[in-house]
Write a structure and sequence with these properties.
CATH architecture: 3-Layer(aba) Sandwich
CATH topology: Rossmann fold
Number of helices: 5
Distance between the termini: 14 Å
Helix content: 40-55%
Radius of gyration: 13 Å
Order of helices and strands: EHEHEHEHEH
């Protein structure tokens, strides 16, 4: 089985840890990296290939919506599945993220089973 690489972008170390913990429940998901904001995520994306990106919206320096917009406007990242995980639960925020190119939207507080299910679906991992 091919190694699956995931990038988790959130300014909260605790939230990143929780998401990483959830993703570790998926067998074969061997490489999970973290970034504290959109700029750090772009630096990682410029030198590595990822199969899935999970991002918060509200972050300093560069927020998740700007990150999604930049990635979707770069043809190299058109196929990269993006999941928004955020405290912004309003329908308008969900629509905005989806319009920019997010594949899924999960409102906090997160349920690890939902994170695992969404990741499995977007990565086409059976289980």
């Amino acid at each position: 089985m091919q190694t699956v690489r995931v990038l988790v972008v959130d300014d909260s170390p605790t939230m990143r840890q929780l998401i990483v913990f959830a993703l570790r429940r998926i067998p074969g998901l061997l490489q999970i990296e973290e970034a504290a904001d959109g700029v750090a995520a772009l630096k990682k994306l410029s030198s590595e290939r990822y199969d899935l990106l999970l991002t918060d919206i509200n972050m300093p320096i560069m927020d998740g919506l700007k990150l999604i917009s930049l990635l979707r406007n770069d043809g190299q990242y058109n196929a990269l599945p993006i999941v928004v995980i955020t405290t912004e639960g309003a329908a308008l925020d969900r629509e905005r993220a989806t319009a920019l190119g997010a594949n899924e939207y999960i409102a906090k507080p997160i349920q690890t089973a939902r994170v695992v299910a969404v990741a499995r679906q977007l990565l086409a991992i059976d289980g």
